[in-house]
Amino acid sequence: MRRRADHAGHLRFSLPRELGGRDGDNLAMAIIREHLAHKGLGLHNDLQNESSIVGNFPQVSLLHRYGTQAQKVRFLDAMITGKESVAFGLTEPNHGSDATWLETTAVRDGADWILNGQKRFNTGLHKATTDLIFARTSGKPGDARGITAFLVPTTSPGFEVPFMWWTFNMPTDHAEVRLTNVRVPNETILGAEGEGLIVAQAFLHENRIRQAASSLGAAQYCIDESVAYARKRIVFGKPLAGNQAIQFPLAELHTECEMVRGLVHRTAWHLDRQDHLEVSDLVSMANYRANRLVCDAADQAIQVHGGVGYSRHYPFEHIYRHHRRYRITEGSEEIQIRKVAGHLFGFMGPSRTDRFRSAAKQGSESPCGEGPPCGGRGRNAE
Prior knowledge:
The protein is of the alpha+beta class. It has 3 domains: 2-85, Acyl-CoA dehydrogenase/oxidase, N-terminal domain (Butyryl-Coa Dehydrogenase, subunit A, domain 1); 87-190, Butyryl-CoA Dehydrogenase, subunit A, domain 2 (Beta Barrel), CATH 2.40.110; 198-361, Butyryl-CoA Dehydrogenase, subunit A, domain 3 (Up-down Bundle). The protein contains 11 helices and 12 strands. A 4-stranded mixed β-sheet has the order 3-6-7-10. A hairpin with a 4-residue loop joins strand 1 and strand 2. The radius of gyration is 22 Å and the shape is globular. It starts with a helix and ends in a 21-residue tail after the last helix. 40% of the residues are buried.
């Protein structure tokens, strides 16, 4: 699938032209990923391994943005073709959402670094040749600075994978990792020393909005399939669709899809024009609402289809199991809501309302600039 999609010119769509892509932006990717997820399960968009004929390459974007020339030469094309695979190791047994408190450390030893610690739910290690390990190199627990990202070969002495986590969804690609005196050269640092969280956040923000789009598409698929089934299913001598108990929940979910779609598109548009940290609250809104929506839609689809919906002969239980993880991974919905609240109340800098008022006083039409409306109070209003 990867080879044929690449030959057809689809696989690298989101990548820069210098990497064989088409400079596909976040808005285009959001629309495409929603469309593919809306088509249901298949090689075009496979939930089992998150592959797609239009590739999502967050690690490639990180290497392209933060990598040294030597790192780019080694990894970029090889990651696209599948010859190299870079896993993502941030979460730890004692620290998930509180990433600034991670306990994995890296200590200088001449020109090298010695890594010690443990990672949990280390994504992609079933096939990875390299693991992107985040470790504290300076500062104290809780400091945002002082965490560094290392490209660690999975064959390094002291790099151990005791087991893979079996989750609600399936036997997964999420590993438990132990690092015991793992030695890596200074050249394995990705980005600047002590600035690893910037690398992590760049990965998460771009990935969160695209994943939200996939959840939106899968939710719409569940709704559409339920409507079609209810119209043809005959119970008590009439179509199931004639019952308001069937109509109303699906009508509400369909309405929420329309609202979330607008939020996802607007957020992706801003990501293409602003630094990702400036719109992190919008990313959080879109992500947690889309993930909650698809779980509700899949659950309702199971209910509408009855016994066959609960079976594995229909895709809804699979969709539910897969997307349920996203209410936890890459930032739980509680963390997303916390971030929204932080911007709303000004704990994480000026709120959107404050920025709008400041721009209005300065005579600017909007802090958002030209483009789609920022809210419901007139053109470009925040």
